[in-house]
Amino acid sequence: MLLKNIKRIYFLLPLLVFISLLQILSNSGLVNSSLFPPPTKVFLSFTELLRSGEIILHIKSSIWRVLFGLLMGSVAGIIIGLLTGRNNLYDKSFSPLLQIFRSFPAVAIIPLVIAWFGIGEGAKLFSISFAVFFPVWINTHIGSSRIPVHYLQSSSLLTKSIITKWFRVILPASLPFIVAGIRNGIAIAFIMVFVSELAGASSGIGYLISVSHLAYRIDKMIVGLILLGLLGALTDFIFIRMIRRTLPWIEKI
Asked: Cα separation of 206 and 198, whole Å?
């Protein structure tokens, strides 16, 4: 118990020192407190948004978009990655084109997506799914293409069913890489939800930051940025806990 408490203190100590230094700097008069609001003012802005219920609305909107885009992009990335990783024809046909698309900055396609889908939810969800797809695809592709040959040879002796081989050998052997791809996808999804909510949104954390910028409320902008970071870290933490509970044989994730 004592060891756990010490670890918690070590974890919180850098954060407390950082917050204290910001508070001292903001109150020192060396910087403009309007541009660099003290942590106490940021906290008061958070409580103000929390009491009004506004922050809950923004969090719900952003989380829904992130989870839907993450799900769609991950499913597509896993399926295509398994196909290109295990089939030379699919690899030679699709991988060069996907590598070109993977080089596109995901943020740069948003004006084009808005032109196609308008400024509704479709554009936001497509943008997030598009960005998430590529890290999941490339990790799945690498993982499925590096399965040890003796795994496949052993499975051929035990069953002739192609479906059984895919679900009992190929997919499980690729899971560590798939998990790594999804973790990258989580971070990218939160970046994209912020960017996609800057235009044509009436709710969401990106919308909150954009409106706060127009009103010159730096404190509320910081609240939004902190929320994005915390939600991204929490989503990754929950995902990892789920993986460790359901797939304990996957190590070092």
From this structure: 6
User: Which residue from 146, 168, 179 is spatially nearest to 250, judged by alpha carbons?
Assistant: 179
User: Domain 37-246 is classified in which CATH homologous superfamily?
Assistant: MetI-like (1.10.3720.10)
The pTM of this model reads 0.84
DSSP strands (E only) in 86-186: none
Query: Where along the chain do its domains lie?
Result: 1-36, 37-246
Cα dihedral 88, 93, 96, 100 in deg (nearest 10): -140
Amino acid making up residue 107 = V
Q: State how far the Cα of 65 lies from the Cα of 193, in Å rounded to an integer.
A: 7
pLDDT in tens, 137-167: 999 999 888 877 766 667 666 666 677 777 7
Q: How far apart are CA 128 and CA 71, in angstroms?
A: 10
Q: Tell me the C-alpha distance between 34 and 153, whole Å.
A: 66
SS3 119: coil
Q: Which residues contact 31 (CB under 8 A, 6 or more apart)?
A: 25
Residues 161-220 pLDDT 10s: 677 777 777 788 889 999 999 999 999 999 999 988 887 778 889 889 988 888 888 888
